[in-house]
Amino acid sequence: MKKIIFTLFISLSLLACNSDDDQTNNNNNPYLTIPVVNLNLNLNLPEYNPLKFPGNSVVITNQGIKGVVVYNVNNSIYTAFEISDPNHNPSSCSRMAVEGIVATCQCDDENRYDIVTGQHQDDQSRYPMQQYRTERSGDIVYVTN
Questions:
Q1: 113: domain range?
Q2: Angle subtended at Cα 143 by Cα 138 and Cα 145, rounded to the nearest 5 degrees
């Protein structure tokens, strides 16, 4: 009996494990897909130089659905989010404009999101921004999903 209980316990434990327990891209969002994102941002290049300083961000338009915004929180923590509004199907107006730490949708509802947390600024029941993984190693910031 002990062997059966032990085997059952081990089986349940293994089923509960995720191959990536730090997964940031659980996509329950019906509006956005999860595109392949694989960026290596060399902070020594002029276009990514702002990311050397906390409080700065860079928008990369050739990755993600409508682009990716990368934000330097404190030189060791970076955030990266999709800049297609998570509460709209991708369209001509759903690409958000970034000013400071706020990303604003260009559609009529003008949804606003915090690029540090990804949360909607006015309505927490709305979908948050789609997040990508970030890691800094030396002068390279890696952004992946």
A1: 2-144
A2: 140
Q: What are phi and psi of 13, to 5 degrees?
A: -65, -45
Q: Which residues contact 59 (CB under 8 A, 6 or more apart)?
A: 67, 68, 69, 70, 83, 98
Domain count for the chain: 1
All residue ranges of the chain with pLDDT < 70 are 1-27
Residue 58's CATH number: 2.102.10.10
Residue 136 C-alpha from the chain's centroid: 15
